Amino acid sequence: MANWFKALGKTRNLFKETLGGIFSRDKDLDEATLEELEEELLAADVAPRLAAEVIAALDKARRGGNRSRRDVLKQVLIDQLAQTTPFTFSQLPPNACLLIVGVNGSGKTTTTAKLAHLALEEGIDPLMGAADTFRAAGSDQLRIWAEMVGCEVVAGKQGSDAAAVAYDALDACIARNRDLVVIDTAGRMHNKAPLMDELKKIVRSLNKRVPEAPQETWIVLDATIGQNALMQARFFNETIPLTGIVITKLDGSSKAGCLFSIKKELDVPIVFTGLGERKEDLVPFEAEAFVDGLLGIKDDDTGDDN
Ligand SMILES: Nc1nc2c(ncn2[C@@H]2O[C@H](COP(=O)(O)OP(=O)(O)OP(=O)(O)O)[C@@H](O)[C@H]2O)c(=O)[nH]1
Ligand SMILES: [Mg+2]
Q1: What is the CATH number of domain 92-292?
Q2: Strand pairing category for 216-222 and 96-101
Q3: Looking at ligand 1, which atom is closest to the CA of residue 186?
Q4: What span, in angstroms and rounded, lies between the C-alpha atoms of 23 and 120?
Q5: CA 225 to ligand 1 center in whole angstroms
């Protein structure tokens, strides 16, 4: 069981500075406070539309609703994340292909290995593809992880064609009758056209082996960078349609407001969350646990304003 509450400590501190006004007893939730709060929400990278919705809900509660302010806020935030059923590896077809993409350093390689670990725990037999051929260290890093999680890797030489390695990895998945291949790719800046074209080439190459592959394409986003993550997700989604979002480093001082805007704009599910650097630290995203962690609500809380 992941400790969301502990992992979100630093994020919560950032968020609480913003939301202090809502929670302090001696501060009446008058119109001036609401206005002040809206500005603070915007400063914390909460999208304008969401900030407006939060304020409207609090205003409504203030005008006569008897629910606690915190419950109102919690519900607005959970509704924004509108999560569907949790992802399971067993819902994938046989020899499924999961492509991992994102900008430099967002946590792709680590996440690829953590996903293989989770798949193994679910009784799924995975393979990993090291299609980061850009740096020699790219596939070495995945090999080290592979030993830790007990999963085979298909890798190419440094400088070789990433699309060819991706193809080989999927081919090996089929030949070795594995349930799933998770393919790690090189970090690429979302605004560099040649790099984004390489991503399209990887997808075309996978298509050649299996027309439906990749069945899943997940972007790995670093939660600590805030609103820029939205920009990245937007560019990647325009290049190759994304089917999932993995948010890493929520255990750092993340600017969690960006999660709400990304989810809202892309309407792609947030599938997993990185809460630390160990192999066990990737957990399915849970909207309520996330919002509780953010607002400082513990399981045994009564929900009273404080
Ligand atoms: N605290 C924390 N650190 C993480 C998390 N996920 C990844 N990291 C760290 O982030 C750093 C970068 O992770 P990588 O997996 O190498 O990132 P990458 O996207 O593969 O990087 P490039 O291949 O260079 O683009 C490493 O030090 C990881 O340990 C997380 O959820 N929490
Ligand atoms: Mg990497």
Answers
A1: 3.40.50.300
A2: parallel
A3: 23
A4: 43
A5: 13
- Domain-by-domain residue ranges, the chain? 4-84, 92-292
Tally Cβ neighbours within 10 Å of residue 11: 24
293 CA → ligand 2 middle, Å? 28
**What tens digit of pLDDT does each residue of 226-285 get?**
778 888 999 999 999 999 999 999 888 767 777 888 888 888 999 999 999 999 999 999
The answer as to CATH 1.20.120 being correct for domain 4-84 is yes
Ligand 1 centroid, distance to 188 Cα (angstroms): 14
How far, in Å, CA of 301 to CA of 224, rounded? Answer: 28
pLDDT digits (tens, 9 = 90+) for 78-133: 888 877 778 999 999 999 999 999 999 999 999 999 999 999 999 999 999 999 99
Kindly report the protein residue whose alpha carbon is nearest to atom 14 of ligand 1.
Answer: 107
